[in-house]
Amino acid sequence: MQKVKKVPQRKCIACQDRDNKKELIRIVKNKEGQIFLDKTGKANGRGAYICNCSECLKKAIKSNALSRAFKMEIPEEVYESLIKEIEDDE
């Protein structure tokens, strides 16, 4: 009998939709306090997931969802670089 592998699910911090981990983008805060997009999904640090669209990132910024997820104030230039990276991928 074939064992069915469970696909990990994660929730978008902006729209609260659940999706497969591979479909979402992981944003990481490492020990040094740097915040960046994690394309591999394996970087060390605390991760938060958002849908792969700039609307969800903008919603997360507006609602301070990233600040809550990482328990810190997030600098404006971090948001700008995240938006730029996501829009480049779209």
UniProtKB/TrEMBL annotation:
It comes from the Bacteria. InterPro entries: YlxR, YlxR-like_sf, YlxR_dom. SUPFAM superfamilies: YlxR-like. It holds the Pfam family YlxR. Residues 10-83 form the YlxR domain. Gene3D superfamilies: YlxR-like (3.30.1230.10). This is Nucleic-acid-binding protein implicated in transcription termination. It comes from Paraclostridium benzoelyticum.
